[in-house]
Every structure is written in structure tokens, then in C-alpha cells.
Specification:
Radius of gyration: 21 Å
Structural class: mainly alpha
Mean pLDDT: 78
Distance between the termini: 65 Å
Largest sheet: none
Strand content: under 5%
Helix content: over 70%
């Protein structure tokens, strides 16, 4: 009874918020409000950046939760386990290859990976997919090609580094965590929750898919908004001139660009064009650090990772990805 009332109250609050949004969108006189109240330009910029991040991410979040729901309803645990090699080392290769054909960006990858882990995919294999899918997919490859037509080595370097480094990341995760459960819910609780959902959803599979997708979307939405707000704060108030002054060094510039990638939280389908704008300031190695690190780890997906995985594991994952991408780029740029 309490659960039903809580669900109904959430739906009412959601409808009220949507109605308020529509009202202000149609009837609110923004220019009059701005003329009556002096708002600092920086806060106006923050508002613009925040909205652009959210609007850019929402379609991909929708894609991610829908794919996650399709996996939940139509893919059995037996199917997932059947196509994953038993050998932990060999298993990272098909995960990386799957990322090359799966059009999911970093905005949408977390719910998909979480669902695959719930279905029985080993932890390290799922995180290989998380690391490489936002970079290796065909849409990102095309955008990188068009952004760097004058320097195709950036495309080759981005795809090659993402493929190799994602597998190394997966193997290091396996070394430290094996196949331990790092989701915030235990395996027993997850099984219980899923069984309860199946009992309450006495509908056909497609309706169940949309139910799951809507639940996950609103669950993840609050973390997306939080991540977008934090990212917009950094973009607005961070002194970029200081960071650019550090970018002239061969060893510090990749770190600077990795920091930029984390803070800017750009969608991997569009980040190549931003990276291209830094082409006259940073060396190719630093640009590759930006293009490889950002899709693997940025402000948005870090918030989501902390929400759904254990804190210790997420902190270790951040350190592992940062170290491997940095040293991978340092080694790679010796050959370009």
C-alpha cells in the first residue's frame, strides 16, 4: 500500500514539474526577467552550458536505458554466459570487438553495463565494453575522421589505443577484483528485486521493456542532472589559461587534456570537433589523451558509477583508467 502511494505521489510530482516546465517555456518572458534582475554573465553561461549538456545527453540516456531494458527482458543469463569465453584473458577480446559494433556513447553505457553484469557477464569483461564502446563504435569513428581529415593518424591512434587500452583495463580489473560483485546491491537482493518486478508486471514483453526503461530513465536522470551541473560549474569558473600554460610540456599536456575531457563531459560523438579546435595548441599525443580518456571517464558517467557501484571499486577504476590511458599515450606518442 505504501509502495503504491509513494509511486503515485512520484508520478503526480513528475506531472506537476512537466506542467511547470511547459508553462515557463511558453509564457515566461525571459528578456523582461533579465531586465528587472541583473544576472551575472557567468551564471547565464553556466545555465547555457548546463542545458546543452543535459539536452545533448538525454537522447543517448534514453537509448541506453532502452537497450538495458531489452537486455533485461529478452536476454537470459544463459545466453550471456554461453557467448563469453571461460578463459578470463581471452574473454576481453570479444568484449572489445563488441564495442566496435555497438553504437552506445558514454552517456548511455552505464545502464547497459550494469544490466549485463546483472545478467551474469563477468565484471572485467563488462568494463572492457564500458571503456571501448563509446570510442570504437562507427558513429564516433566517422565524426573523428571528419574532424581530423588533415591528420588521419589521430583516427588510427584513437581507435587503436581504445581497443588495446580497454583490454588492458579489463585485465587489471580482473587482477584486483576477479569476478566479485561490485554492484551496490548484493546478488541475492538483485535476484529478489527482479523476481518481484516480474511478478508485478503481468504484461507482454514489450510493455515490460517500456516499464523498465521508464523506471531506469527517471532513476538515472537525477544523477545525469547532478553530473551536468557539476561539469557546467567547472566549465564556467575554471581558469583555462592556467591549464593551457601547462599544455606545452610533452608529459604534462596529456594530463591537462585528460582533465579537460573529464570536466567538459562531452558526448563522444561530438568531442572530436572540440579536440580539433585545440590542434594548434596541443600536440597529437595530448589530443589523443583527450579523445581516449573522455569517453571512458567523465563527470557524468563518474556520478552514475558512484550511484550504482561500490565506492572503493569506482575509485580504483578511476585510478586504473587514468594511469593506463596516460602511460599508453606517453608510449604511443614516442612513435608518432
Amino acid at each position: 500500500m505504501k509502495t503504491t502511494m509513494l509511486k503515485q505521489s512520484k508520478e503526480i510530482i513528475g506531472l506537476v514539474l512537466v506542467a511547470l516546465f511547459i508553462y515557463f517555456f511558453i509564457f515566461w518572458d525571459y528578456k523582461q526577467f533579465q531586465s528587472e534582475f541583473s544576472i551575472p554573465q557567468q551564471w547565464l553561461n553556466l545555465n547555457t552550458i548546463f542545458l546543452s549538456i543535459v539536452i545533448e545527453a538525454i537522447p543517448f540516456i534514453l537509448l541506453g536505458v532502452f537497450v538495458s531494458s531489452l537486455i533485461q527482458i529478452f536476454v537470459s543469463e544463459e545466453t550471456v554466459k554461453k557467448y563469453i569465453p571461460k578463459n578470463a584473458v581471452i574473454a576481453v577480446i570479444p568484449a572489445a570487438l563488441l564495442g566496435a559494433i555497438f553504437p552506445v556513447c558514454e552517456c548511455a553505457i552505464v545502464p547497459v553495463v550494469r544490466r549485463l553484469i546483472k545478467k551474469g557477464m563477468p565484471l572485467h569483461v563488462a568494463f572492457v565494453f564500458l571503456a571501448c564502446a563509446p570510442i570504437l563504435n562507427p558513429v564516433v569513428a566517422a565524426s573523428t575522421y571528419f574532424a581530423f581529415q588533415s591528420n588521419p593518424s589521430i583516427l588510427v591512434g584513437r581507435m587503436g589505443l581504445a581497443f588495446v587500452l580497454s583490454m588492458i583495463i579489463g585485465l587489471v580489473i580482473y587482477l584486483f577484483f576477479k569476478n566479485s560483485n561490485q554492484l551496490k546491491l548484493t546478488s541475492e537482493e538483485l535476484v529478489g528485486n527482479e523476481a518481484q518486478k516480474q511478478e508485478t508486471l503481468q504484461v507482454n514483453k514489450w510493455k515490460a521493456t517500456f516499464y523498465h526503461a521508464s523506471d531506469e530513465f527517471f532513476d538515472m536522470g537525477k544523477y545525469l542532472i547532478l553530473g551536468a551541473f557539476i561539469a557546467s560549474l567547472f566549465q564556467t569558473f575554471l581558469n583555462r589559461e592556467v591549464l593551457l600554460s601547462l599544455g606545452s610540456n610533452e608529459f604534462s599536456s596529456p594530463l591537462v587534456m585528460m582533465g579537460f575531457a573529464f570536466v567538459l563531459s562531452l558526448c563522444s560523438e561530438a568531442d572530436a570537433f572540440v579536440a580539433a579546435s585545440f590542434g594548434t595548441t596541443f600536440a597529437p599525443g595530448a589530443l589523443l589523451a583527450f579523445l581516449v580518456y573522455g569517453p571512458m571517464l567523465d563527470m557524468k558517467n563518474t556520478i552514475l558509477l558512484f550511484a550504482y557501484f561500490r565506492t572503493k571499486f569506482v575509485l580504483c577504476f578511476i585510478i586504473i583508467v587514468t594511469a593506463i590511458v596516460y602511460f599508453g599515450v606517453i608510449i604511443y606518442q614516442q612513435f608518432i
